[in-house]
Design goal:
The chain is of the alpha/beta class and 261 residues long. It has two domains: 56 residues, Vcp-like ATPase, Chain A, domain 2 (Roll); 189 residues, 3-Layer(aba) Sandwich (Rossmann fold), CATH 3.40.50.150. The strands form four sheets. The chain has a seven-stranded mixed beta sheet with strand order 9-8-7-10-11-15-12, with helices on both faces. Strands 2-1-6-5 form a four-stranded antiparallel beta sheet, with no helix packed on it. The chain has a two-stranded antiparallel sheet with strand order 3-4. Helix 3 packs across helix 4. The protein is globular, with a radius of gyration of 21 Å.
Length: 261
């Protein structure tokens, strides 16, 4: 049952592309929409999946996902797209109770996915060298219910880190090859290193540095492509979206090993 302080996503029920809103429930508050006012008091006491009737339509009360959260973030940097974040988490097997690190924080997109997966007993350490980015990311994550699982750190990832025995580390900046050797002491044996690189020029350097490091074994390098479709059964229409994002970057995956003595 929903109560004050819960964060919910309200979704319009519509045959066209529906609109949605994320709100933190508060007594006597309301949100003005094109369908009419959404009264928070009408949501409190309901359950996820319940339908509310408004003046000009109906909406669903749903639980926000990391994908939903980042669509409401204030973006000051280019972010990893939702598909990239999901695959990155899958590569490293990120799950509840794991301790993971990332650099750089940017606007907090990947941070959100990581925190969502490690809760309630895990933790995320997020590094960036830009104070403005960290401040913005903290404000973005304050819109979610995930802030308690994240520690933001203002630090150059190429300098020694305090953290040890992490289960995975994610590098999302232009020259990850400069940090490879510095990440090795931070990870447990069998831990995962995932690098995201938007430009082809740095891929070869990064893979070469991973292979030169005795603590990592390179697993795979690949890109993610996505193709969206428009589907309208009433008009017999199913076709791809002609203008779409089909490329975002390259993912590189390696595993931390214990070298032969």
């Amino acid at each position: 049952m929903l109560k004050e302080g819960n964060i919910v996503r309200i979704i319009e029920i519509s045959q066209r592309q529906s609109k949605a809103w994320i709100i933190s429930l508060a007594q006597n508050a309301e949100l003005s929409t094109h369908l009419g006012n959404i009264l928070h008091n009408d949501c409190i006491g309901k359950n996820f999946g319940d339908i509310l009737s408004l003046t000009k339509g109906k909406v669903i009360i749903s639980r926000p996902s990391p994908r939903d959260y980042i669509r409401y973030f204030r973006l000051k940097t280019q972010i990893l797209y939702e598909d990239d974040c999901a695959i990155a988490c899958s590569l490293a097997g990120v799950g509840s109770g794991m301790y993971v690190g990332e650099a750089g924080t940017g606007s907090g997109a990947l941070t959100t996915f990581l925190a969502h997966h490690v809760q309630p007993s895990g933790h995320v350490f997020s590094y960036d060298i830009n104070t403005k980015y960290l401040t913005n990311a903290q404000k973005n994550l304050a819109k979610t219910d995930l802030s308690d699982y994240i520690t933001f750190k203002l630090q150059d990832i190429r300098s020694p880190l305090e953290e040890r025995e992490l289960d995975a580390f994610f590098l999302d900046f232009s020259s990850p090859y400069e940090a490879i050797d510095n990440i090795a002491p931070v990870l447990n044996g069998g831990g995962h290193l995932v690098c995201f690189i938007p430009n082809w020029g740095q891929v070869e350097q990064t893979v070469a540095q991973i292979r030169q490091c005795p603590y990592f074994v390179h697993q795979e390098t690949f890109e993610i492509t996505r193709r969206n479709f428009i589907v309208n059964p009433d008009k017999g229409i199913m076709r791809p979206v002609f203008r779409d994002l089909v490329y975002s970057g390259i993912l590189i995956h390696a595993i931390r090993v214990n070298p032969d003595k």
